[in-house]
Write a structure and sequence with these properties.
This is Sorting nexin-17. Its main location: membrane. Residues 379-410 are annotated as: Disordered. The chain contains 13 helices and 16 strands. It is an alpha+beta fold. The protein has 4 domains: 2-90, PX Domain; 91-183, Ubiquitin-like (UB roll), CATH 3.10.20.90; 185-248, Acyl-CoA Binding Protein (Up-down Bundle); 250-304 and 323-376, PH-domain like, CATH 2.30.29. The strands form 3 sheets. Strands 8, 9, 10, 11, 12, 13, 14, 15 and 16 form a 9-stranded antiparallel beta sheet that branches. A 5-stranded mixed beta sheet has the order 4-3-7-5-6, sandwiched between helices. Helix 9 crosses helix 11 and helix 10 (220-231) runs antiparallel to helix 11 (235-243). The longest helix is centred in the first third of the chain and has 20 residues, at 48-67.
Length: 450
């Protein structure tokens, strides 16, 4: 069986024959021209070198399917991964109560099926809160890790190819929680959300929490004004004032390492306002701040590697050893592109943030509506997926070969991010065109933007 990881964590195990079945189904639905080539069957038993070659080919195949907007977003592909996740974790379909947190620490308990996908769970939470259908799409569920001071470290936005209940329980760690937060970047959309009292309350709770955790910067005078508005329970005015503050609407990431402006600099990265903001501690201990606009990123990629295990043979590398990197190619000046790398366990989450900023910009550019972008389903009815049928336990998958655990390189781990390949790049150390997100917002940049 082959292990498929998301964010360095095992998502599911699948056999070659199951992946071949997925390939044939995709070809039937989308035609041979759209679906990438699949590693061929072999008559004889594979040698260890051929096994490794096939693993690499399957990894590239899965990434190529996920990179294609049509295939990667298809119900066929996503339901395959959801069912495989449920079978691998051996969680039968049954009714359970799932706890979802709000930003103010309030808990919302929803009764769902273990086989309910992310969208179903989001709908159930919205229904429990009486959030109107047309506002559901402004919010998302995030997998977070609770830190000792009660703040949250963001692991990822829950994706359409996973089952939230299975994702959180299979981690076997009470620090991992699911939280509901707004999922857009442009604060002008706050107006839509504030039209309804439930939307207003959710936005208010998130703003208060972000200020308390120091994500939004507040000086003494602003703090006094905010306190006074809080006492008067003037929630809209509170949010309006908060919108003028630095880092409003940004997601703050855990301290990590960057190679900009020089190798090995410690940095705190925040994502928001169509940019990545860097607060860098230079080797001289001086703190410098700067921002990278998403429109000036030509492309980006996420890579991940696992060092070979140094321990006794057969021991697998610890989770902390998986090294994730986000690298983006940035237009520093006219005709001057430079790669900037961030080494962080949250690299995939950072990439998802960049992609959603670009998507939002493109919708705006085309004159589309954000409501339409979010509400892809014709009606607000809660849809139960086919995966409701109880999964036979034990599953049909063998346990993976223990001797294959320490891998030298998991080339480009892009499993949880939708990518767009780009045709060329000026960088000498490129992994290959298909490993990139090509950024369509970048193409609109003109000389005046520099």
């Amino acid at each position: 069986a082959y292990n498929i990881h998301v964010n360095g964590v095992l998502h599911c195990r699948v056999r070659y024959s199951q992946l071949l079945g997925l390939h044939e189904q995709l070809r039937k639905e989308y035609g041979t021209n759209v679906v990438p080539a699949f590693p061929p069957k072999k008559i004889f038993t594979l040698t260890p070198a051929e096994v490794e070659q096939r693993r690499e080919q399957l990894e590239k195949y899965m990434q190529a399917v996920r990179q294609d907007p049509t295939l990667g977003g298809s119900e066929t592909f996503n339901s395959f991964l959801r069912k495989a996740q449920q079978e691998t974790q051996q969680i039968p379909t049954e009714e359970v109560v799932l706890e979802v947190l709000l930003s103010n620490g309030q808990k919302v308990n929803v009764t769902i099926l273990t086989s309910d996908q992310t969208e179903d769970v989001l709908e159930a939470v919205a229904s429990k809160l009486d959030l109107p259908d047309d506002l559901v799409g402004y919010f998302s569920l995030f997998l977070v890790r609770e830190t000792k001071d009660g703040a949250f470290s963001f692991v990822r936005k829950l994706q359409e190819f996973e089952l939230p209940y299975v994702s959180v329980t299979s981690l076997h760690n009470p620090e991992f929680r699911i939280i509901l937060r707004k999922s857009y970047w442009d604060s002008s959309y706050d107006d839509d959300v504030m039209e309804h009292h439930v939307g207003l309350n959710l936005l208010y709770a998130q703003t208060v929490s972000d200020i308390e955790h120091g994500w939004i910067l507040v000086n003494k005078e602003q703090h006094r004004q905010l306190k006074s508005l809080q006492e008067k329970v003037s929630k809209k005015e509170f949010i309006r004032l908060a919108q003028t503050l630095k880092y409003y609407g940004y997601l703050k990431f855990d301290p990590c390492v960057t190679d900009f402006p020089e190798k090995g600099c410690h940095v705190v990265v925040s994502a928001g306002n169509n940019e990545l903001n860097f607060q860098v501690r230079l080797p001289s201990e001086q703190i410098k701040e700067g921002s990278f606009k998403v429109t000036r990123m030509r492309c980006w990629r996420v890579t991940s590697s696992v060092p070979m295990s140094n321990g006794p043979s057969g021991s697998s590398p610890g989770k902390s050893e998986v090294k994730l990197e986000l690298a983006f190619e940035y237009l520093m000046g006219k005709d001057r592109l430079q790669w900037v790398t961030i080494t962080s366990p949250q690299a995939i989450m950072l990439s998802i943030c960049l992609q959603s900023m670009v998507d939002e910009l493109m919708v705006k550019k085309s004159g589309g509506s954000i409501r339409k972008m979010f509400r892809r389903r014709a009606n607000g009815a809660l849809r139960r997926s086919d995966s409701q049928q109880a999964v036979k336990s034990p599953p049909l998958l063998d346990s993976p070969d223990a001797s294959r655990e320490p891998m030298a390189k998991l080339s480009s781990k892009l499993t949880s991010v939708s990518l767009r390949g780009i045709s060329h790049s000026s960088s000498a150390n490129d992994v290959g065109a298909n490993d990139f997100h090509g950024n369509y917002a970048f193409e609109g940049i003109g000389d005046e933007d520099l």
